[in-house]
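Saturday, quiet lab. Running sequence design on the structure tokens for the scaffold JK sent over.
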């Protein structure tokens, strides 16, 4: 139970899924399915649509065992100005430090949270 005067906002959707091989949801809330769009590229489909495209998305996965120390995790949502109300596209992978391009990778554990 939370205390204090700051407001509390519940997640509108969340999912924990296997992003390798046959993509599979382990556990979720308000997520009907995951679409595998290719290596490191997924669409999270909502059971009930968001009220608008002005929501916040957090993506995470475990640290990757890099072959070099000069790489950084890459997690982001694929949208230019607003999100779709029925789904969100997320991408995961790594990026070389100082680079402007990354490498998309499949991960065995990916977590997504959506707040509005």
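Result came back. Writing it out in full:
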């Amino acid at each position: 139970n939370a205390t204090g005067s700051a407001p509390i906002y519940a997640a509108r959707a969340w999912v924990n899924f296997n992003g390798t091989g046959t993509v599979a949801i382990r556990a979720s809330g308000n997520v009907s399915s995951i679409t595998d769009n290719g290596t490191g590229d997924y669409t999270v489909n909502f059971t009930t649509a968001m009220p608008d495209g002005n929501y916040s998305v957090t993506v995470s996965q475990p640290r990757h065992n890099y072959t070099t120390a000069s790489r950084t995790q890459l997690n982001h949502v694929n949208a230019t100005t607003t999100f779709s109300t029925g789904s969100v596209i997320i991408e995961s992978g790594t990026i070389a430090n100082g680079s402007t391009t990354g490498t998309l990778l499949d991960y065995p554990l990916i977590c997504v949270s959506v707040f509005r």
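Notes for JK: The chain has no helices and nine strands. The longest strand covers residues 87-96. Ask whether to fix the surface positions before the next round.
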